[in-house]
Amino acid sequence: MSFDLTSADLTSFDLTLLGWSELRAAELPDGTVPARVARIDRGAAEVIAADGQHHVKYGARVRRASSADPVALPCVGDWVALKLLPEGRYELDQVMPRTTAFIRGGVSRDSVGGLSGDGQGQVLAANVDIVFVAEPSMHSTDFADLGRIERLVALAWESGGTPVVLITKSDLFEQGLDDLLADVRVAAPGVAVHAVSSLQGEGVELAGHYLEGSRTAVILGPSGAGKSTLVNALAGGSVMETQHVRAADGRGRHTTVHRELIPLPGGGLVIDTPGIRRIGLYDIGEGVDLVFSDIEALAERCRFGDCGHTGEPGCAVLDALESGELPERRLTSWRKLQREAAWMASRTDARLRKEQQNKWKVIHKEMRRSGRNRP
Ligand SMILES: Nc1nc2c(ncn2[C@@H]2O[C@H](COP(=O)(O)OP(=O)(O)OP(=O)(O)O)[C@@H](O)[C@H]2O)c(=O)[nH]1
Ligand SMILES: [Zn+2]
């Protein structure tokens, strides 16, 4: 679903409404102008500065850094330092330090991918404060998928942002919604969980509060979770999808731009990109430990420090399973995501590869032993 759009010319922006802060201001290099990246387009960036929107090319410093490591390439949500060139247009001189980042493929250390990104490690969005994990209470005939919530919450922690789970389309699930929310809270310890119905306006205002202080959010979730509908509801009607923008090259050209950084009329911003929409397919790592903090805590009480929780004596994890304290589904989910995280790490870090192959052999053996042939 797309956003409704009225076109408007951007002439000026209060940068604090885009999330600019004194902390960031302190990091701005002398002689540069701050701007936030609204979209990346074929090796150039659409940025919003205090004097409006500009299409800027990358300067030598950015090109050099990103040829050594594509993660250094600007991405949506980045704060960047612009330099005014003698001919009167800006160039993107530096990407300012990121507070959070969604990175696909892990951080590459030795990539020669250059400007293409080369799939070697690509930043999908930066400086995202709030990560809404949208999971519909009902998805056609299925109930909310707790495993998917765990995966996306892990990704959210991994990014450095704060996850907030939204059980969307709550109107489809009138009876037993409280039970569902209770299950979700178990699946996402330490994470706020709310029911939302964008159609009925329920929970939308509450979700909006997370964006106060001009915070930036993304909404992760499966197709059909109601992400676009929620963005529109947060915007109190319709937000801009495309926009006529006066090109900054002084020729007065108008280009239609799909903005991926969407300022909401009531304050706050939402980043919405195809990459972020597909992110559930990408890697997870340390975030897994955080989303399964309950199991990690149990594991610390196992008799053996290297307990594999597969039948060792004094295993607190299996004890909790037996007593019903730990749902079996959750243990299975934890194992699955751990394997995936390890595999992803191995893909992106050649140094670890050999070691991981050995671990994989062990895992395969274990899986054969337990009669399962799929991770
Ligand atoms: N019953 C109900 N339906 C909703 C709600 N929110 C969205 N929908 C419907 O769910 C469908 C999918 O909503 P979208 O907002 O397009 O979902 P999306 O997550 O953006 O999906 P993609 O664009 O495929 O990623 C649409 O038909 C919406 O009208 C809700 O709160 N309640
Ligand atoms: Zn154990």
Automatic annotation (TrEMBL):
Its main location: cytoplasm. Zn(2+) binds at residues 302, 307, 309, 315. Residues 116-279 form the CP-type G domain. Residues 126-277 form the EngC GTPase domain. It is found in: Cytoplasm. Keywords: Cytoplasm, GTP-binding, Hydrolase, Metal-binding, Nucleotide-binding, Ribosome biogenesis, RNA-binding, rRNA-binding, Zinc. Belongs to the TRAFAC class YlqF/YawG GTPase family. RsgA subfamily. Monomer. Associates with 30S ribosomal subunit, binds 16S rRNA. This is Small ribosomal subunit biogenesis GTPase RsgA. The gene is rsgA_1.
